Amino acid sequence: MELRDFINIGLDRARQKTLQAIDGLTHDEIKWRPGPGANSIGIILLHQARSEDIYLQSRILGKPQVWELEKWYEKMNLPLSEEGAHYTVEQVNAFRAPEPEHLVAYGDVVRSRTVEYLMGISNASFDKTITVPRRGNISVGDAFALIIFHTSEHAGDISFLRGLQRGMDK
Questions:
Q1: Which of 39, 93, 106, 113 has the least C-beta neighbours within 10 A?
Q2: Under a CB-based contact definition with an 8 Å cutoff, are residues 117 and 126 in contact?
Q3: pTM tops 0.85
C-alpha cells in the first residue's frame, strides 16, 4: 500500500466519524453548549475544517485558503480573520454557530482539496519540511498525521456532545 493511500484511509475514516456524529442533529443541537466557556459542536466543526484548510493551503502549499478564495466566511457570516481556534472564554460564549449545511459543505470542500493534493504527491514529498507556528519545523507527513489525529479527536468530542444532548445511540 502506498503511504498516500494509507493516509487517505485515515482521513476518510476520521471524516466519516465526524459526519456520523452529526447526522440528524438540528441547528439548535449544533449550537448547544453544555455550559459557559464550553465548545459547541458548531465551533468544533468550524475548528476542524479551518485547521485543515490552514495546514494544507497555507502551511504545506503556501497558497490562500479555501476560506478566503471561495468566501466561506461570507457564507457563514463570520469575519475573514476567523481562524477557528485560540478562542478566549468570551469568544466561545459569543460564538454563533453557522448553519450545519455550511459547516459540512466547507469541511467537504477542504477535505476534497486535501485529498486532491495527497493523491498527486510522491512518497518523497512527505519528507518536505514546513514551518508551523507553535510546532516549529515538521514534515508534510507529520502534518498529515496531525490532521488525522486532530479530526479523530474532535469527532470524539462531537460524539460526546451529541450523547449529552440525546443519550446513547440516539
A1: 93
A2: no
A3: yes
| Rounded-to-integer distance, Cα 72 and Cα 77, Å | 8
User: In this structure, what C-alpha cell is assigned to residue 148?
Assistant: 488525522
Q: In a 10 Å sphere around its CB, with 0-12 CB exposed, 13-18 middle and 19+ buried, how is residue 96 labelled?
A: exposed
**Boundaries of every domain in the chain:** 3-166
- Alpha helices by DSSP H, 23-121: 27-31, 41-53, 66-69, 72-75, 89-94, 100-119
* Contact between 17 and 152 (Cβ < 8 Å): yes
- Report phi then psi at 89, rounded to 5: -60, -40
Asked if residue 153 lies in contact with residue 21, where contact means CB atoms within 8 angstroms, the answer is: no
For the structural domain made of 3-166, what CATH number should be given?
1.20.120.450
pLDDT for 167 equals 84
**Nearest C-alpha neighbor of 76 from the set 33, 116, 106:** 106
Return the residue matching grid coordinates 497558497. 63
